[in-house]
Amino acid sequence: METKKVNLSEYNPEVIPSGEDFNIGIVVSEWNPTITNSLLEGAYTTLQKHGVKDENIAVEHVPGSFELPTGAKLMLKYGKYDAIICLGCVIQGETRHFDFICEAVANATAQLAMAENRPVIFGLLTTNDMQQALDRSGGKHGNKGVEAAVTALKMAALRAKLKAESTKK
Ligand code: DLZ
To answer: Which residue segments constitute the domains of the chain, with CATH numbers given?
Structure first.
C-alpha cells in the first residue's frame, strides 16, 4: 500500500467523539525516548483537544515495548479506564529481536483488548530505521500518537454507546 506521500494523522476533528467523560491510560516504552516522547505528546495533546480532562489521563512508563501489554494489563487491573493507549518504537536491528518483539506486542495487545472488553490501542512504530520513526512521530508522515488517541476516543465512545443501549433493553 502506498502511504509515502500521505500524512496519516490528518483527520476531521468534527467527527471525533468528545472525551469529556472518559478516563484514558497511556503506557509508554522507555526505549527510543526521542520518538516515544513525541508519540506521547501527540497522544496527550489530542486527548486534551477532544475534551479529556488532565486529571483523567494517566501516563505510566515501562522499560521496553515488550512490556507494553503487561503495563496496559496492570493499568486495567488497578485503575478504571475507558481505553488504554500503548506507545512504543521498535527499530529493525541486525537480529530477529525486532520480529519477536513486534509480533508478541501485537498479539498480546489484541488478546488483552478482547479479554478485558476494553479498547487497548496499538501505537507501536515498527520501522526499518530511525528516520522512518522520526517521520511518523511528528514528521512528514504525521504522528502515530495522534492516531492512537483518535482511535482510543472512537473505541471508547463505541463501547459507551453499546453499553448504554444494552441497559435500555
Ligand atoms: C531489547 C530491545 C531491543 C533490542 N530493541 C528494542 C526497541 O527497538 N524498542 C523497544 O521498545 N524495546 C527494545 N528492546 C527492549 C524490549 O522491548 C524489552 O524491554 C526487553 O527485551 C526486556 O523484556
So the answer is: 22-168 (3.40.50.960)
Q: What is the pLDDT of residues 39-74, one digit of tens each?
A: 999 999 999 999 999 999 999 999 999 999 999 999
146 alpha carbon – ligand 1 mean position (Å) = 23
Residue 97 is a catalytic residue: yes
pTM over 0.85: yes
Residue 16, C-beta contacts closer than 8 angstroms, at least 6 positions apart: 50, 150, 153, 154
Q: Collapsing DSSP states into helix, strand and coil, what is residue 85? A: strand
Distance from the CA of 9 to the center of ligand 1, in angstroms?
26
Name the residue with the closest Cα to ligand 1, atom 15: 64
- Nearest 5°: the CA angle 69, 30, 121 is 35
In the reported structure, the alpha carbon of residue 136 is separated from the centroid of ligand 1 by a whole-number distance in angstroms of 19
Residue 91 near ligand 1, beta carbon < 6 Å? yes
C-alpha angle with apex 50: 44 to 55, nearest 5 degrees?
55
